[in-house]
Amino acid sequence: ETGVTQTPRHLVMGMTNKKSLKCEQHLGHNAMYWYKQSAKKPLELMFVYSLEERVENNSVPSRFSPECPNSSHLFLHLHTLQPEDSALYLCASSQGQRMNTEAFFGQGTRLTVV
Amino acid sequence: GESVGLHLPTLSVQEGDNSIINCAYSNSASDYFIWYKQESGKGPQFIIDIRSNMDKRQGQRVTVLLNKTVKHLSLQIAATQPGDSAVYFCAFGSDRGSTLGRLYFGRGTQLTVWP
To answer: If residue A22 lies in a helix (H) or strand (E), which one and from where to where?
Structure first.
Protein backbone atom coordinates (compact mmCIF):
# COMPACT_ATOMS: atom_id res chain seq x y z
CA GLU A 1 0.00 0.00 0.00
CA THR A 2 1.34 3.39 -0.99
CA GLY A 3 -1.14 5.49 0.98
CA VAL A 4 -2.95 6.51 -2.20
CA THR A 5 -6.17 4.63 -2.88
CA GLN A 6 -8.09 4.73 -6.13
CA THR A 7 -11.59 3.44 -6.78
CA PRO A 8 -12.86 1.70 -8.72
CA ARG A 9 -9.99 -0.49 -9.89
CA HIS A 10 -11.79 -1.31 -13.12
CA LEU A 11 -14.54 0.56 -14.96
CA VAL A 12 -16.37 -0.16 -18.19
CA MET A 13 -18.59 2.59 -19.46
CA GLY A 14 -20.53 3.47 -22.58
CA MET A 15 -19.88 6.65 -24.50
CA THR A 16 -23.07 8.26 -23.17
CA ASN A 17 -22.46 7.40 -19.53
CA LYS A 18 -21.31 9.63 -16.71
CA LYS A 19 -18.97 8.20 -14.13
CA SER A 20 -16.43 9.42 -11.60
CA LEU A 21 -13.04 8.17 -10.51
CA LYS A 22 -12.03 8.69 -6.91
CA CYS A 23 -8.63 9.11 -5.32
CA GLU A 24 -7.88 9.38 -1.63
CA GLN A 25 -4.51 9.92 0.01
CA HIS A 26 -3.68 9.34 3.67
CA LEU A 27 -0.22 10.84 3.61
CA GLY A 28 -0.93 14.44 4.53
CA HIS A 29 0.24 15.65 1.14
CA ASN A 30 -0.96 18.94 -0.29
CA ALA A 31 -0.59 18.28 -4.02
CA MET A 32 -2.47 15.72 -6.10
CA TYR A 33 -2.27 14.72 -9.73
CA TRP A 34 -4.13 12.82 -12.41
CA TYR A 35 -2.10 10.95 -15.01
CA LYS A 36 -3.24 8.95 -18.02
CA GLN A 37 -1.29 5.85 -18.99
CA SER A 38 -2.01 4.43 -22.42
CA ALA A 39 -0.36 1.40 -23.95
CA LYS A 40 3.07 2.10 -25.41
CA LYS A 41 2.93 5.78 -24.47
CA PRO A 42 4.61 7.75 -21.70
CA LEU A 43 2.55 8.77 -18.71
CA GLU A 44 0.62 11.93 -19.56
CA LEU A 45 0.02 14.53 -16.90
CA MET A 46 -3.61 15.65 -16.97
CA PHE A 47 -4.25 17.83 -13.95
CA VAL A 48 -2.35 19.19 -10.97
CA TYR A 49 -3.93 20.41 -7.76
CA SER A 50 -1.95 22.23 -5.12
CA LEU A 51 -3.65 23.19 -1.87
CA GLU A 52 -6.98 22.23 -3.47
CA GLU A 53 -6.48 24.73 -6.28
CA ARG A 54 -6.01 23.58 -9.85
CA VAL A 55 -2.63 24.80 -10.99
CA GLU A 56 -2.36 22.99 -14.26
CA ASN A 57 -4.74 21.71 -16.89
CA ASN A 58 -2.62 20.08 -19.52
CA SER A 59 -4.87 20.64 -22.56
CA VAL A 60 -7.24 17.92 -21.47
CA PRO A 61 -10.62 17.66 -23.26
CA SER A 62 -13.57 19.04 -21.34
CA ARG A 63 -15.15 15.59 -21.14
CA PHE A 64 -12.70 15.10 -18.26
CA SER A 65 -13.55 17.28 -15.27
CA PRO A 66 -11.46 17.17 -12.08
CA GLU A 67 -12.61 18.09 -8.62
CA CYS A 68 -10.60 18.48 -5.46
CA PRO A 69 -12.92 19.12 -2.49
CA ASN A 70 -10.12 18.90 0.07
CA SER A 71 -6.44 18.04 0.22
CA SER A 72 -7.12 14.33 0.75
CA HIS A 73 -9.56 13.68 -2.07
CA LEU A 74 -9.44 14.04 -5.82
CA PHE A 75 -12.09 13.11 -8.34
CA LEU A 76 -12.14 12.81 -12.09
CA HIS A 77 -15.62 13.17 -13.54
CA LEU A 78 -16.13 11.54 -16.91
CA HIS A 79 -18.87 12.15 -19.46
CA THR A 80 -19.37 11.37 -23.15
CA LEU A 81 -16.00 9.69 -23.41
CA GLN A 82 -14.55 8.21 -26.58
CA PRO A 83 -13.06 4.72 -27.06
CA GLU A 84 -9.58 6.29 -27.34
CA ASP A 85 -9.99 7.45 -23.74
CA SER A 86 -9.62 3.85 -22.61
CA ALA A 87 -6.49 3.74 -20.47
CA LEU A 88 -5.14 3.38 -16.95
CA TYR A 89 -5.81 6.53 -14.95
CA LEU A 90 -3.35 7.10 -12.17
CA CYS A 91 -3.61 9.41 -9.22
CA ALA A 92 -0.52 10.61 -7.37
CA SER A 93 0.22 12.85 -4.43
CA SER A 94 3.22 14.72 -3.13
CA GLN A 95 4.15 17.19 -0.46
CA GLY A 96 4.41 20.36 -2.46
CA GLN A 97 3.92 20.78 -6.18
CA ARG A 98 7.28 19.38 -7.11
CA MET A 99 7.15 15.64 -7.61
CA ASN A 100 10.24 13.90 -6.42
CA THR A 101 10.93 11.44 -3.67
CA GLU A 102 7.72 12.37 -1.92
CA ALA A 103 5.48 11.35 -4.84
CA PHE A 104 3.29 8.29 -4.42
CA PHE A 105 1.01 6.73 -7.03
CA GLY A 106 -2.21 4.85 -6.54
CA GLN A 107 -2.82 1.54 -8.28
CA GLY A 108 -4.91 3.17 -10.95
CA THR A 109 -8.34 2.72 -12.47
CA ARG A 110 -8.42 0.66 -15.65
CA LEU A 111 -11.03 2.41 -17.80
CA THR A 112 -12.59 0.84 -20.86
CA VAL A 113 -14.94 2.92 -23.00
CA VAL A 114 -17.25 0.88 -25.22
CA GLY B 1 8.70 19.59 -26.82
CA GLU B 2 10.14 17.54 -24.04
CA SER B 3 11.08 13.98 -24.70
CA VAL B 4 12.42 11.13 -22.70
CA GLY B 5 13.37 7.99 -24.53
CA LEU B 6 14.58 4.52 -23.77
CA HIS B 7 17.07 2.62 -25.87
CA LEU B 8 15.34 -0.77 -25.51
CA PRO B 9 11.70 -1.51 -24.90
CA THR B 10 12.46 -4.93 -23.41
CA LEU B 11 15.30 -6.49 -21.45
CA SER B 12 15.62 -10.12 -20.43
CA VAL B 13 18.21 -11.23 -17.89
CA GLN B 14 18.95 -14.34 -15.90
CA GLU B 15 18.42 -14.34 -12.16
CA GLY B 16 21.59 -13.24 -10.42
CA ASP B 17 22.92 -11.22 -13.33
CA ASN B 18 23.19 -7.45 -13.29
CA SER B 19 20.69 -5.40 -15.29
CA ILE B 20 21.26 -2.06 -16.94
CA ILE B 21 18.33 0.01 -18.14
CA ASN B 22 19.07 3.12 -20.18
CA CYS B 23 17.29 6.36 -20.79
CA ALA B 24 18.01 9.38 -22.99
CA TYR B 25 16.57 12.82 -22.38
CA SER B 26 16.53 16.05 -24.33
CA ASN B 27 16.05 18.86 -21.78
CA SER B 28 19.42 20.00 -20.48
CA ALA B 29 17.67 22.25 -17.92
CA SER B 30 16.35 19.32 -15.90
CA ASP B 31 17.16 19.43 -12.21
CA TYR B 32 16.33 15.94 -11.11
CA PHE B 33 15.79 12.50 -12.54
CA ILE B 34 13.78 9.64 -11.15
CA TRP B 35 13.44 5.96 -11.82
CA TYR B 36 10.07 4.33 -11.23
CA LYS B 37 9.14 0.66 -11.21
CA GLN B 38 5.68 -0.47 -12.24
CA GLU B 39 4.59 -4.02 -11.60
CA SER B 40 1.63 -5.50 -13.37
CA GLY B 41 -1.63 -4.15 -11.98
CA LYS B 42 0.06 -1.55 -9.82
CA GLY B 43 0.93 2.11 -10.04
CA PRO B 44 4.51 3.34 -10.51
CA GLN B 45 6.70 3.04 -7.44
CA PHE B 46 9.63 5.33 -6.74
CA ILE B 47 13.00 3.55 -6.83
CA ILE B 48 15.73 6.15 -6.74
CA ASP B 49 16.40 9.69 -7.86
CA ILE B 50 19.39 11.83 -8.66
CA ARG B 51 19.87 15.55 -8.93
CA SER B 52 21.62 17.20 -11.85
CA ASN B 53 24.66 18.17 -9.75
CA MET B 54 25.47 14.50 -9.16
CA ASP B 55 26.65 11.81 -11.54
CA LYS B 56 26.08 8.72 -9.43
CA ARG B 57 23.86 7.64 -6.61
CA GLN B 58 23.51 4.26 -4.97
CA GLY B 59 20.66 2.60 -3.21
CA GLN B 60 19.98 -0.91 -2.10
CA ARG B 61 21.04 -3.06 -5.09
CA VAL B 62 20.41 -0.15 -7.44
CA THR B 63 22.68 2.52 -8.84
CA VAL B 64 21.69 5.45 -11.00
CA LEU B 65 24.24 7.06 -13.29
CA LEU B 66 23.79 10.44 -14.92
CA ASN B 67 25.85 11.65 -17.85
CA LYS B 68 24.79 15.21 -18.57
CA THR B 69 27.23 15.58 -21.44
CA VAL B 70 25.34 13.07 -23.56
CA LYS B 71 22.01 13.45 -21.71
CA HIS B 72 21.94 9.84 -20.64
CA LEU B 73 20.57 8.21 -17.51
CA SER B 74 20.92 4.58 -16.51
CA LEU B 75 19.65 2.30 -13.79
CA GLN B 76 21.79 -0.60 -12.72
CA ILE B 77 20.25 -3.42 -10.71
CA ALA B 78 22.70 -5.78 -9.04
CA ALA B 79 21.94 -9.49 -8.64
CA THR B 80 18.61 -9.21 -10.41
CA GLN B 81 15.80 -11.21 -8.84
CA PRO B 82 12.48 -12.46 -10.24
CA GLY B 83 10.73 -9.80 -8.14
CA ASP B 84 12.52 -7.16 -10.17
CA SER B 85 10.46 -8.09 -13.23
CA ALA B 86 8.46 -4.97 -14.07
CA VAL B 87 8.34 -1.97 -16.35
CA TYR B 88 10.91 0.67 -15.46
CA PHE B 89 10.33 4.32 -16.27
CA CYS B 90 12.73 7.18 -16.22
CA ALA B 91 11.38 10.65 -15.58
CA PHE B 92 12.84 14.09 -15.20
CA GLY B 93 11.68 17.39 -13.81
CA SER B 94 12.69 20.93 -13.10
CA ASP B 95 12.66 23.15 -10.02
CA ARG B 96 12.12 26.23 -12.11
CA GLY B 97 9.90 28.05 -14.52
CA SER B 98 6.70 26.92 -16.14
CA THR B 99 7.59 23.23 -15.86
CA LEU B 100 7.88 23.33 -12.07
CA GLY B 101 6.24 20.26 -10.64
CA ARG B 102 5.82 18.55 -13.98
CA LEU B 103 7.45 15.18 -14.57
CA TYR B 104 8.23 13.97 -18.08
CA PHE B 105 8.17 10.19 -18.38
CA GLY B 106 9.78 7.82 -20.82
CA ARG B 107 7.85 4.99 -22.43
CA GLY B 108 9.27 2.33 -20.16
CA THR B 109 11.45 -0.76 -20.43
CA GLN B 110 9.97 -4.16 -19.65
CA LEU B 111 12.48 -6.11 -17.56
CA THR B 112 11.97 -9.88 -17.44
CA VAL B 113 14.07 -11.99 -15.10
CA TRP B 114 14.44 -15.69 -15.93
CA PRO B 115 15.20 -18.26 -13.24
So the answer is: strand A18-25
